[in-house]
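Throughout this chapter, every protein is written as a compact record of paired, labelled lines. The reader may check this reading against the record printed directly beneath this paragraph:
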Amino acid sequence: MTLHIFAYNQASNGARNLAQALGIRRIKAENSQYRGSPDKTVINWGASQLPPNVAASNVLNRPAFVALNSNKLRFFQCMSNFDDVPLPEWTDSYHTAMDWLYGGSDVCARYNLSGHSGEGLTIFTADQYRAAPYNVLDAPRAPLYTKYIKKKAEYRVHFAMGQTIDIQRKIRDPGRDVVDWRIRNHANGFIFARNGVEEAMPQSIITAAEAVIRATNLDFGAIDLIYNSQSGSYVLEINTAPGLEGQTVTSYAEAFRQFA
């Protein structure tokens, strides 16, 4: 079966690296000569809509499912139907979120439902609320709020065709003196690591990731999870176009070769 890849972002490094590893062509978003057919397979790298010539093929990660899972509110709504998928406490109600702050809980406000790496995320603390409640009350209302959970560790579990194919942990970049432990992304001083990760990883992370893999309608993706030593593991989101480098590229390439 012939493989191609189509990326929602034509400049995606992950899609480019994967295409190079597989030795396959990337399909242009415009002026493409590609002609789809059922005997061709397209790896859809994060696109919630596909051109007709691409949609005519056998598509891994159908665009409707990408749209569902890449929207954080819709993802939470969907996963809430599965008892074995542990989610942070969440709400789309501004008043409920304010009650959480009043009760002493910090709150994450998601202003961008499809953002990544902390894009569009603001954390309001109970201390801020007590010190200057009207500054918080006057903040713009968000479409999604979650209770902030202190985390001992944060992981990314990659899967394809129903199987876990790679596991990473976010660790402090040794070259950075100042980091933000609440939002663990590259800009705040964190990088992905894998050496020794699986040996030290709590079983609840694997259990939670496997529950998402069973529940989701995606063919592949990357699940972000956090671990709290007191309350266990929680699923934060799923990525349909994760960044790929090094061994992670190889892991995806091997999974797609086996499928093809």
